[in-house]
Amino acid sequence: MVKFLLEKDTWQEVIDSLSKNKLRSILTMVGVWWGILLLIALLGSAKGIENNFNARFKNYATNSLFIFSGRTSIPFKGYQEGRRIKLNLNDVERIKENISGVEYVVPSIQVQMTLSRNTLTSNFTGRGEFPLLDILAKKDLVWGRNINQQDVDEQKKVIVISDDFYKQLFEKGENPIGKMVKSEKVSFKVIGVFEAVNFGGPQIDFDIPFTTAQQLYNRGNDVDLMMITGNPSFEINQIDADIKLLLKNIHGIHPDDNRALNGFNLGDRFEQLTGFLIGMQFLTWFVGIATLIAGVFAIGGILLISVKERTKEIGVRRALGATPYLIKRQIIVESVSISLISGVLGIISGGLILMLVNKLAAQGEDAFMRNPSVSNGMVLLALIIITVLGTLIGLIPATKATNVKPIDALREE
Amino acid sequence: MLEIKELHKSYPIGDSSLHVLKGINLSVKQGEMVAIMGSSGSGKSTLLNIIGMLDQADSGEYILDGLLIKNLTEKKAALYRNKFLGFIFQSFNLINYKNALENVALPLYYQGMKRKDRQELAMFHLEKVGLVDWAHHLPKELSGGQNQRVAIARALAANPKLLLADEPTGALDMNTSYEIMEFIQQLNDEGKTILMVTHEDDIAHMCKRIVRLRDGVIMEDSKIDQVRAKKNV
Predict the structure, then answer these.
(1) Are A48 and A219 in contact (CB under 8 A)?
(2) Cβ of B19: how many Cβ atoms within 10 Å?
(3) Roughly how many angstroms between the first and final C-alpha of chain A, as a whole number?
(4) From CA A227, how far away is CA A299, in angstroms rounded?
(5) Strand partners, A88
(6) Which residue ranges make up each domain of chain A?
(7) Half-sphere exposure at residue A70, Cβ-oriented, CA atoms within 13 angstroms
(8) Is residue B175 part of a domain?
(9) Is B58 within a domain?
(10) How is residue A52 annotated by DSSP?
(11) Can you give the residue range of the structural domain that contains B9?
(12) Of A376, A253, A281, nearest to A43 (Cα)?
């Protein structure tokens, strides 16, 4: 069989019979080409979206949740609705003590500052934070370091800025470490630059030590946002519910009031997204394979017609000594060849489409996709599927061709 | 060379069956040139097809060159056809997208001969039929007579023991027919055994023996004085 595939004659026969009716051969190939193109383009795009999600989530502990306060929407215990709820450091301690399964509770304070350097001034939103936050929502540093415990303990006037911040107040390429930026009240020394991540809500452009923020803005025990991680063996949704119940008790909020405490559960979102991604991949495979099967069936159908047209020729060949095996083999090789050629063309053009998609839709921070691509394994799998389908579908016309008795085939006009 | 005894063949037609060959006895020796004649429906084509292993007899014996031809699988039949038989058809039956050389080389391809040897041998046979200059032309670029010569070269390519011709001149005008017959006579002179179905008397008389069939039985089987085609051209 291998020798047969290496012989020039085999391919001469395939080329002869395909070029005999070029238009038909090309139209036949379009089906499989389209199927593979769809499969590759869709799989690659799905991968791109997945890559994007993974890149955005990679720095977050997935079994975590954020909680921040809002206003009540139901009157309760003598309070009017619309009361502003303020979380504080006591809540943090209570949560740690009372809720089982909680690993870390990290509070932070939101801070707005007008910061300037030399002649440049701009408004920024940032937070006062603890170093622990970096464990839960890790920032990628471009320069320097993050806030550490010593900064918090000594209420140091240090600041870690985002790359956006850097672009606004610093010259390109300038090393910002050790430089000072001025707020309305005090000057901060820049100790690091991180890559800004836009993850819902206002973009965070700087971090200063929690205690520094507390003191500068007289925030007392206030907490604007808590980030909580759960022990991996605990259900994050349960922890979420437990904490909310506890906080509702402490702050006198109606149990059914869903507005007073806001937040979102990363675990939940992550699960939704993962489910969405899996669904999308499944759909892609389904659509791709279905199109592919339709394409290969088209090849089978066309070969069937071609075999029918060539009944007499096949009869002559058999009179000249072609065994049924030889006839079948030739037709199957034709089937697999058309499938594979169009499949490879489909892979190539699918790849080109992905490159185009990459150029158009996957550049920059807010891009919808990141590095849309298909792994070699996928390509190989697609090729194997085409070959197997091509062989199976080729069997139909091949059997048809040899089922006719040579004598009847010769009589055919 | 060829030994046929009590050969019967019938075809089912609806519920009944048509008895086409009703006990044929025929013996052909090496080097003979036999014309099988008969009106249509006499069974002459069926006989040729059975001899050509394209069809199987219901009963009776068929021995070719000492080999009993019976219950052949398709594969075996294909191998025997390739090895023992050369076919010449009325409508040439060349493969229209292959040139003359490739058509002649086809039986050798099925023998598993190497491409180079095959083409050499095919060229040798094309030379014999005088078509070397036309080796790379497609059938549609050749005349009927030339096409039949290509077909004869193809039939000869595998050096068969027996040449079977089914109305070889049926699609040709008289001059070309005689040209082709001259070729076939030449082959017979060189020792090839030839069996030919025809309904034309003049063509039949260019053979050395005429077998007349009617209603599935042999009516007449006689040696004749061969008319040479050459002087008629």
Answers:
(1) no
(2) 15
(3) 33
(4) 58
(5) A222
(6) 2-57+271-411, 64-266
(7) 13
(8) yes
(9) yes
(10) H
(11) 2-95+143-232
(12) A281
Cα(A152)–Cα(A155) distance, rounded to whole angstroms? 5
- Give the pTM: 0.69
Task: Say what the pLDDT of residue B201 is.
Answer: 92
- How many residues are there in chain A? 413
Confidence of residue B160 (pLDDT cuts 50, 70, 90): very high
Residue B10's pLDDT band, with cuts at 50, 70 and 90, is very high
Q: B73 Cβ partners below 8 Å, 6+ apart? A: none
ipTM of the complex as predicted: 0.91
pLDDT of amino acid A330: 87
pLDDT for A59: 67
What is Dmax (Cα atoms) for chain B?
55
Which of helix, strand or coil describes residue B155?
helix
Asked if residue A126 lies in contact with residue A113, where contact means CB atoms within 8 angstroms, the answer is yes
CA angle A310, A316, A321 (to 5 degrees): 125
Residue B95, classed as helix, strand or coil, is coil
Give the one of A324, A402, A406 whose C-beta lies nearest to B54's C-beta: A406
Tokens read off for A143: 């320069």
Burial of A339 (0-12, 13-18, 19+ CB in 10 A): buried
Report the distance separating Cα B126 and Cα A264, nearest Å. 87
Q: What number of other Cβ atoms are within 10 A of residue B172's Cβ?
A: 21
Asked if B79's CB is within 8 angstroms of A323's CB, the reply is: yes
| A–B CB contacts, 8 A cutoff, strictly below | 62
Q: What is the CA radius of gyration of chain B?
A: 18
With CA atoms as reference, report the closest residue to A309 among A413, A183, A191, A170.
A413
The chain A residue lying nearest B81, using CA atoms, is A321
Percent of chain A with pLDDT over 70: 96
Asked if A75 and A81 touch (Cβ cutoff 8 Å), the reply is: yes
* Residues on chain B bordering chain A, Cβ-to-Cβ distance under 8 angstroms: 49, 52, 54-55, 74-75, 78-79, 81-83, 87, 89, 93, 95, 97-98, 106-107, 109-111, 115, 154, 158
Identify the CATH number of the domain in which residue B164 sits: 3.40.50.300
DSSP-based helix, strand, coil % in chain B, nearest 5: 40, 30, 35
Top-confidence residue, B26 or A77? B26
Tell me if A321 and B158 make a contact (CB, 8 A cut-off). Answer: yes
User: Closest partner residue to B106 among A8, A320, A405, by Cβ?
Assistant: A320
Tally of residues, chain B: 233
Paired strand residues for A182: A116, A187
Confirm whether B133 is domain-assigned: no
**Taking CB atoms and an 8 Å limit, are B87 and A319 in contact across chains?**
yes
Nearest C-alpha neighbor of B52 from the set B84, B27, B21: B84
> Once rounded to an integer, what is the mean pLDDT over residues B30-47?
91
Place of tokens 């003359």: B100
